[in-house]
Write a structure and sequence with these properties.
Blueprint (H helix, E strand, L loop, with lengths): L8 E11 L2 E11 L4 E5 L6 H8 L7 E6 L2 E2 L5 H8 L2 E4 L11 H12 L4 H14 L15 H12 L6 E5 L7 H18 L2 E5 L3 H7 L2 E6 L2 E6 L1 H5 L4 H7 L16 H5 L6
Parallel strand pairs: 3-8, 3-9, 6-7, 7-8
Antiparallel strand pairs: 1-2, 1-4, 4-5, 9-10
Length: 272
């Protein structure tokens, strides 16, 4: 078993793009410590979700190195990627529950599909996972009968059904009311501490994310521009990081999309 001091994930000089002209990730290097909550943050379009997709094995990097639990997986075979994914749980932005299944059956789905456990054991595991997120009593409801915040918690119960070593959260706080948001944040932190699971959280919510994260990585324009503890990132002197953390309108990220000058567009100063 690897030491807890060894990162679970290491990306080195990672590049990814759908064309050679436009790289979404441009030389990204970062590490994710074991058993901790790591937050990926930054302005929209900075590459956060793409990093999550690379880590989850959903897309393959164009170049660079991806090491998972000490093994290079950048050019891994499909069978190896499949085995790696079984050690992960993923919480999608909108839950992605099966609308025609009950809450119970949604959480049971990965157990029934990926394990050979008897139904009695599946039942016990599902109820334990639902209890962990406070929804054991909602087992017989359909997704349409519960709130958005509750649906996100059901999706979390499903993500931890197989006791993963790593959980990937894509915008877990998006669209939640303050109470649901606080509940989701506490669950992420509690699961990390009680289960020793490694968590990667992509989020735009500064306050809640900084409160639960052990490490924060800020991406912009496909590059890592800061990484460290929440306090270190909050006190960064990098202009882009400062603009993001303090929600300032003026800075490296401009309000106006590049365009011709006002004079050129409206003909100011040009004789008519």
């Amino acid at each position: 078993m690897n030491s807890t001091s060894t990162p679970l994930i290491e990306l080195k000089d990672m590049c990814f793009g759908y064309s050679a002209e436009r790289l979404i990730l441009d030389g990204v290097s970062l590490s994710v410590p074991r058993g901790k909550v790591t937050a990926l943050m930054g302005a929209s379009g900075g590459g956060k979700t793409t990093v999550l997709r690379v880590i989850g094995g959903l897309v393959q990097a164009t170049s660079g190195s991806y090491v998972f639990d000490g093994k290079e997986v950048t050019r891994a075979r499909q069978s190896d990627l499949y085995a790696m994914r079984q050690r992960m749980g993923m919480l999608f932005q909108h839950g992605a529950l099966f609308s025609d299944m009950t809450v119970f059956d949604n959480v049971a789905f990965p157990l029934r599909e990926l394990s050979h456990l008897p139904e009695t054991m599946v039942r016990d595991i599902v109820l334990m996972k639902l209890n962990a997120v406070g929804l054991r009593g909602a087992r017989d409801l359909k997704p349409s009968q519960i709130s958005g915040g509750m649906a996100r918690r059901v999706a979390l119960a499903r993500a931890i059904a197989l006791d993963p070593e790593l959980i990937l959260y894509d915008e877990p706080f998006a669209g939640l009311d303050p109470i649901s948001l606080g509940t989701a944040a506490r669950l992420i932190r509690d699961l990390s501490q009680s289960l020793g699971v490694t968590s990667i959280v992509v989020s735009h919510d500064l306050d809640e994310t900084f409160a639960i994260a052990d490490k924060v990585i800020v991406l912009a324009n496909g590059k890592v521009c800061a990484q460290g503890t929440p306090e270190e990132v909050r006190n960064s002197t990098d202009p882009l990081v400062h603009q993001f953390v303090h929600a300032e309108a003026d800075g490296p990220v401009r309000f106006h999309y590049p365009a011709p000058s006002v004079e050129d567009d409206f003909g100011f100063g040009v004789a008519r």
